[in-house]
Amino acid sequence: MRVPDADLFNPQSVMDSDFSPGGASASASVDPDFGFAFDDSNFSDRTLRIEIMPDLPETKSDGGGCCSIADWARNRKRRREDFKKENDFIGQSEEQILNCNLPYTVDGVTYENQDEEAMAMVEESPSDIGLNSNQIGNDSIYNNDSSKNMDCPKVLRVKTIHISSPILAAKSPFFYKLFSNGMKESEQRHVTLRIHASEETALLDLLSFMYSNTLSTTTPTALLDVLMAADKFEVASCMRYCSRLLRNLPMTCESALLYLDLPSSVLMADAVQPLTDAAKQFLAVRYKDITKFQEEVLNLPLTGIEAVFSSDDLQVASEDAVYDFVLKWARTHYPKLEERRGIFATRLSRVIRFPYMTCRKLKKVLTCIDFDPELASKVVLEALFFKSEMPHRQRALAAEEANATYRRFVERAYKYRPVKVVEFELPRQQCVVYLDLKREECTHLFPAGRVYSQAFHLGGQGFFLSAHCNMDQQSSFHCFGLFLGMQERGSVTFAVDYEFAARSKPTEDYVSKYKGNYTFTGGKAVGYRNLFGIPWTAFMSDDSIYFINGILHLRAELTIRQ
């Protein structure tokens, strides 16, 4: 039974009463099937007169309807462009043509539209309530004022359907307001809807759904048309139903990008959220390793870039690489500096996790012309403050963003592990490097894996740390090894004193493990195959003294030899 005083149009209430495709409805008693009463005068109290208007020539399909997602997207794009052209023309004729962004009115009663694709109501005759429905793609809206210079569109055909106002009002705030506005028009028995020919099938399917809670159509393009009609007429249960069916169909990059480009009214955002979430997840998984799809990703639209780079599972060398790639994408798609700065300020800066960028790259952000100076200072300061926090505080900040869309404090699955670096110039050039590895990361190293740190610099040369699971010198057991390498820079030689240390229980202080010196040449590395002098099983045991709260803390000190 319905809960007394429940909001019929609350999205959560509608969710609870949705019909589940492929199975029986869990709340059939709440949303019974009235399909038998559809267009039956015996069970109807009003007549719906649907006037079918011709589509604009540019929006007519070539073969009697869109046969693919691509066709549907192209048609919808043309409709948007046509609507913009129409609005440019009608700007000086407000009395004759009603701008669809305005609320629609009937004799002084205002109906606030919740969608960007608004509806308009016009008087048809003293005996009818006239409703003028713009095309799904945001086309122009006309009334019947023949005193103006512009000609009225020709009515191609008229369909008449018997309707039950309680059934339609229970499903749609639009019809609820129409039938209960308290004016004399709400008592009229005849209602006129004016739509474009391209909307006809979708509207009829929608009306049928409002009675039966099901749809006979199953093709993606037809479901998208019904979804758009349901959004226009505020039928949240149908929007959710279409979203579920579309989500169960095979996803492609084309369809995923289209779902992310659907209109974003408040109600629609709630009803179609599962579909957009699935589309984002599809793109994030497909382009998880962007190094394999660089050209494809560079050609993605903005919504696609946001979906891919919002993922925690993005397989990328470092956040520096994310920054470089996003910057390249922005310069490709927004060649004008002002537009590029705007898109970074409003959208793109949110997908870059500045706290995990290296300090050398953060310095470049401060001088990058693509960022507004105020924004650059803000993100760099935020990143530096985060780097200065204690590890437990960093984990707390990341946990606070667990359910956020953009998670700037959450670490991705970088191919090269982030490090913290403290540099000294006097009395000798020196740097102290901190590398933390999770127990899970160490587990995945067995039996012959390795993980590399991000690069750090000393005396103008790039170095890196690498942790290994390898055999000991006698090849008798597996053990944990740590190595220091210099990035290849020609035939340069570099003499360095180094020391490896690790935190250990019970004091949890860093304890020195090995000291040494080495003269590096490009591409060479030095280290210890068994850093802790114990087998791998003892190192990874539950009572291991080297994992503190599940984290292995390593430190390397490098000093340039005089």
UniProtKB/TrEMBL annotation:
Q: Does the keyword Lyase apply?
A: no
User: What keywords is this UniProt entry annotated with?
Assistant: Ubl conjugation pathway
Domain BTB span(s) in chain numbering: 150-219
Concerning InterPro entries, the annotation shows: BACK (IPR011705), BTB/POZ_dom (IPR000210), POB1-like (IPR045890), SKP1/BTB/POZ_sf (IPR011333)
A GO MF annotation of the entry reads: protein homodimerization activity
Q: Which Gene3D superfamilies match?
A: 1.25.40.420, Potassium Channel Kv1.1, Chain A (3.30.710.10)
- Choose any GO biological process term that the UniProt entry carries and state it: response to red light
Cross-referenced SMART domains, in alphabetical order?
Answer: BACK (SM00875), BTB (SM00225)
The record's Gene Ontology cellular component field reads: nucleus
One Pfam family this sequence matches: BTB
- Keyword ATP-binding in the entry? The reply is no
Which portions of the sequence form the region Disordered? 1-26
In which pathway is this protein known to take part? Protein modification; protein ubiquitination
Q: What does this protein do?
A: May act as a substrate-specific adapter of an E3 ubiquitin-protein ligase complex (CUL3-RBX1-BTB) which mediates the ubiquitination and subsequent proteasomal degradation of target proteins.
What name does UniProt use for this protein? BTB domain-containing protein
Tell me which species this is from: Gossypium davidsonii
